[in-house]
Amino acid sequence: MRYLMTSLASDTAPDDKLFAEMGRFIEELTASGVLLATGGLEPGGVRLTSSGGEITVTDGPFAEAREAVGGFALVEVRSKEEAVELGRRFRAIVGDGVSVLQQVFGP
Amino acid sequence: MTRVRDAHRTVDAVWKLESARIVAALTRMVHDVGLAEELAQDALVAALEQWPAAGVPDNPGAWLTAVAKRRAVDRIRRERRLAARHQQIAHDLGRDLDVDRDRGLDEELDPAPGAGQDDLLRLMFVSCHPVLPTEARVALTLRLLGGLTAAETARAFLTGEQAVVRRIAAAKRTLAEENVAFDLPAPEELAARLSSVLEVVYLIFNEGYAATSGDDLMRPALCHEALRLGRLLATLAPGEAEVHGLVALMEIQASRSAARTGPAGEPVLLHEQNRGRWDQLLIRRGFAAMLRAREAGGPPGPYVLQAAIAVCHAQARTAEETDWAGIAALYDALVRLLPTPVVRLNRAVAVGMARGPQAGLDLADELHADPHLQDYHLLPGVRADLLLRLGRSAEARREFERAADLARNVAERAFLRRRAAEAAAPEPSGTTLGDAARRFLTRPELDAPTVRAYGQTLRRLGRTLGEGPCWRR
């Protein structure tokens, strides 16, 4: 089963140690076939709203920077507990902040 | 209570993520896969005892590894003391007996940086060692590298749990008796040893893939297990083209999972699948693995060729755009390396599409004498399709009936009976759907996208009503 983990942007600037640890973590997850895709997201972005057939396109930012999603990871795991465990390791590396895990249903 | 259950599920998840690394590291320490696994299991038991009360440690993997290593060290110390004592008795006085004999044991056992990856690769080679029968290799690989329990393996392979337990115990005994070293194979041995590993991984994949129904989650889960093993192997042995070929083949086959069955669980042939339901992420991963296979170089082996065929199918936006000439050429090459009856039958289908039904039928007819295909419903199924396309409908009907009799799957049998009945129907005197569709599509006022859109639907309809080849999913 697949889980998408999204993480809120954090205001702590990453240092070299964090980069190195994160690099190792991502390498390990990729090697073991768990990590399918990952990436960081531009702050802000573009919002599309449809209302009464009308579609409005607005440039961001829309919320406090700390409430915006800053990155994602799509993982393939055998159970929810495995996803939580991986999420836990990720949080232990990046420090204070919030991530959300959601199961992804098939195409 | 819930907390205890949650903790158990967490322990299980951590175990599945970590056990291969722990067992691999321990095997390097104690030189015995069976003992290593036993020690790792001891650590798992300790976790099950302690975590529900004390909570899951911050780094559970490191915790398990540390406990297992401690037990291994204790065990080695005890054995060394015992050996020393024996020596002492033998030498009577035991002047040189050094009680600090095991000083530095921890450093001695500490792995060099990067040893973890090599250990995992060694563990794969040991689990898939040719001295073991295939079933034992599969069971041991799932156990040692996937962390599956005997019960999970039994469920996946539809056998009894005790049989799996016995199989794993026998495998460990054989490895110990045959003194199988925890080493990477010598260069001259590498190809044979690697093909044994690839065979096991693909077998696990197919066991999961063959089960079309999702009733039993364990069987589709085997596909993921095999993909995971393949992706891991690709990182451990990046220079081997066949490893990437196998990964590409599995990624692309897995990409079709959602499209392979219809609403009632009936099998949907590759040709008729809704390509919109193919998983593009897996297809892209398959293409990427194929590029890595090409970078690794060398003449294409059987997995690279099968993957190349899968790539051809995945690249066609519609079934009609399939590059049958390319696929037939790949099958010509594959059949030289892997002349199995099933490959030869698939080649007959591809050639029938690329070079006309008679050319396909000639190849299918060569397979008649093959004892492996005597009871295989796809042989008459393929012949029936080709005969129908040649206008020999009476023969086609007989072949469809034969295929239906041989098919083991209920939905497939019903499908073949329907085709037999349609083939038997007397040639209609009026306009056929096929003719009407062709006339409709060749009207000059239709633009290309319209022709493509209508054509797809009409051809699918035509096939459902009894046209087109039987093709593996």
TrEMBL record, chain A:
The lineage of its organism: Bacteria, Bacillati, Actinomycetota, Actinomycetes, Kitasatosporales. This is YciI family protein. Belongs to the YciI family. InterPro entries: Dimeric_a/b-barrel, YCII. Residues 1-90 form the YCII-related domain.
